[in-house]
Amino acid sequence: QVRVAESGGGSVQTGGSLKLSCSVSSYRYSRYCWGWFRQAPGTEREGIAYRDSDGTIRYADSVKGRFTISKDNAKPTLYLQMNSLKPEDSGMYYCAADPDQGWNTCRADSGTWGQGTQVTVSS
Predict the structure, then answer these.
(1) Strand partners, 18
(2) What is the DSSP string of 37-85?
(3) Which parts of the chain have pLDDT scores under 70?
């Protein structure tokens, strides 16, 4: 069973940076569709960054130019570098990963979700 775990959250001031990590427990699959999502209290979950199994990366407009996805080629781990953080970036950040098994159309939000890591940006 694939498990996903996020880490790297914390508290920073406006303009600060954090780097989140998302690790998948299984080496069974070599390619995944990955996604980073966040949710602030009282709001809907928002997809902010995606990395498809072919390496295509997409960002939501709200984070474009400030957040960067990178992939560790040696292990099933995805990173989200977050720069120029704003108070509105605060929330619980979740990672989801769906394995590309060759016959399926993988989608991050249809895969396995982590428990989340809290990000708090103070003004």
Answers:
(1) 82
(2) EEE-TTS--EEEEEE-TTS-EEE-TTTTTTEEEEEETTTTEEEEEE-S-
(3) none
